[in-house]
Amino acid sequence: MFAVIKTGGKQYRVAADEVITVMSLAGDAGDKVTFGDVMMFVDGDTTKLGAPFLSGATVSGEIVEHARGPKVIAFKKRRRKNSKRKRGHRQDLTMVKITGISLS
Fold this sequence. Notes:
The chain has 104 residues and is mostly beta strands. It has strands at 2-7, 10-14, 19-23, 32-35, 38-43, 46-49, 57-68, 72-78, 83-89, 92-103. The chain is built from no helices and ten strands. A four-stranded antiparallel beta sheet has the order 2-1-5-6, with no helix packed on it. Strands 3-10-7-4 form a four-stranded antiparallel beta sheet, with no helix packed on it.
């Protein structure tokens, strides 16, 4: 059994007892989160698709930790102009353990 959810502008395929990394969510480690934007639900031979979301379907999870992604360097150089710019960025991420998928 698995579901496809949408959070942070991205889609994730999730199953029970799985740890996923999503964009930063509000809350502390140990807090419960609920994802209501379920796009697809698959259980064996049964497949339900939303248009765009399934009504009554939820995915629950627990925040494991907050982390930061790898550093991404944005380097721009203009040749023969003695001009360059270097910027670094690290995205804030949240690790979420999926505890259950319910379809009511």
